Amino acid sequence: MKLDAIIIQNFRGFQRRTIIPVSSITTFVGRNDAGKSSILDALGAFFEHSLCKPDHSDACVHPDDSGEMRVGCVFTDLPESITLDSSVQTTLQDEFLFNAEGKLEIHKVWQLNDGKISRLKTLIVANHPTADGFSDLLQQKRPALQKLVRELGVEALSNMNSNPSLRSAIWQACPDLEISEVEIQIDKEDAKTIGDQIARHYPAYALFRADRPSTDEDAEVQDPLKVAIQQAISELETELETIKTTVRTRAMEVAERTLAKLHDFDPALAETLEPNFSKAMKWDSLFKLSLDSDDGISINKRGSGTRRLVLFSFFRAEAERIRQQDGKANIIYAIEEPETAQHPSNQRKVIEALISIAETDGCQVILTTHVPGLAGLAPAEGIRHVRRTNAQSREVLLASDENLHEVARELGVLPDKRAQVIVCVEGPTDIQFLRRISRLLHGEDPTLPDMENDPRIALILLGGSTLKQWVNEHLLQNLNLPEIHIYDSDVSDYADSAAQVNARGDGSTAFITQKREIENYLHADAIEEAFNGHTQQPVRIALTDQMDVEVEIKTLLGQGKVNRRSLKSWLNEDAADKMTIERLDERNAKTEILSWLQAVSNHLS
User: Fold this and answer.
1) pTM: predicted TM-score of the whole model, two decimal places
2) How far apart are the C-alpha atoms of 301 and 313, rounded to whole Å?
3) Domain coordinates of the chain in residue numbers?
4) Distance CA 377, CA 374 (A)
5) 529, 534, 537, 538 alpha-carbon torsion, rounded to 10°
């Protein structure tokens, strides 16, 4: 399942029912105490995260008239079927459990009574039969369903030992089911079986808070390390059992000799004593794993930013382990203020790493931040502006030109007035390639631009954008700055676009790549090294200038993703990192790429 939207009502500062769409990477921005963290905790309450057990303090101080606290999730990418027992399958559609949009909408509801919250109820909001006698079949047990099937005379339409089949036959017998939106409780009666099965498909929810210690004693650090120790012990079980037997034998020999000598002094005492070798040997308690630098300094003694990066890495490792262990197909990484204690250069690396995670199959990332640098790097379409409407409630605004303008103003994301030239490319992976290759060539010739760190260069995506790029675009569109366009040659229409740019007469230049796509400028050795250890077979291809590199690798591996990441991500990041000057020369790529960079450099002063 993939999270599509969050619904919050009477949870902390969110009084009115608030529906928040979610994308692959969603960034909640806003002032301190606007309610960003409350959204993550609300999700934690829904997914029953150990850090987010709701209590009366989570209820809105000024609730609305509904008398309930509610957190809901809307899901897409739903399972084709759910198994109710070892042999019976059904579908969400057959059970009329989709909402009006054809999505799965589940709410967790707590009643509010005199400042207390009551026991949780789990509801599905669905377009469901409401006709008299046909509306509560999910709660009916098998004998009641069988009786109704017989009364309706539709035994021939059903398997009398299958509840889904019985319900289907009953619904087919109704001339008008009067389908309407209702709330169905799925944590009681026979519906509980369906509720339990649906819950098994929930994405894993991994929450990383900002206000926490960051030492190697943290649970997120210790848990994966303990797992590593346990795995090692399980692999050495035979050897350890031999050691245990040897130790026991020798210890018992010492004990028996001791009792023999004691018998000489006090036979009565010696006869009351008996050697007893404890069998309860917990090998994992004998070992402790920690992280020390190569100079022997413990991670606990390092700077807070370094400790937090290490802790965040452990958090990711543990979350992925839990997802695999529980058989979850999807995972949601909820990270509160990832910029905490990080240098601005590291903030960019963190957000780029998270964007890469969000591009991984089955992964979603939800962030909160109020730092301009981090917010500026977040994908614009996923930005959600959280703000107070009054003392009682909050609202969440979606990305739009008007809202992004307000976000930029409120956070202080300012246009970079140092820009002297705009470089336009097709997609985010093209930017990753150009950053790495320009850095490589800049290292050989410092007169060439380093696109990763030069503020005079504004990199603009022709498709999609970040908040920073949105800000820059709105500044730059009226400044008549020269533009350098780089288009792949695999799309014939790009030739006309390039011709129009080159005809402007304002110093702008458009390039059509001589090779098919950006990926064709890589070297086969760099590609093989990037995938080494991540695939069962080596990714060795006979690279040519006009082949579709992504399709070639997909055909070789029989899959379009590796470790749930897109192949383009592997190529333009990991493989590009493996490129050298010599490899550029071997691919006859250096001269052409130098022409792009020189065109950019010509407009820098």
Assistant:
1) 0.69
2) 18
3) 2-23+36-141+176-202, 232-286, 421-601
4) 5
5) 0
